[in-house]
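User: Sequence in, structure out. Go.
Assistant: Echoing your sequence, followed by the structure tokens.
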Amino acid sequence: MDTPNRDIIKQNILNILGTETVRPSVAAQCISRFELPPEQWIEVIDKLMKNVMDDASAEKLKDSSLEALGYICQNVGAAIGESKSNFGSNCTWNETTRTICSTFCN
């Protein structure tokens, strides 16, 4: 898929996040799929963490963003388990989990 279309889809997914009336969030699952392979959507983790930490964010947005972070961690972990060559090393997984944990645990 070309970059302009990919960017439009990513923006639309972010716009849907927190608006769904059903669980689990389909938008959260889509975000985790677009995040893989790594380096395809670098800014999404920061965006999701901001949604969760921002007091002004609606509860649905916080929940869906946290759900997306969970899916990303799950998918990255599974991909590393299947083939470390996809990531080159555990560095990407370790950095991702360290960033998320330090944000939510402090």
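User: And one key feature?
Assistant: Helices lie at 3-16, 26-35, 44-53, 59-82, 91-105.
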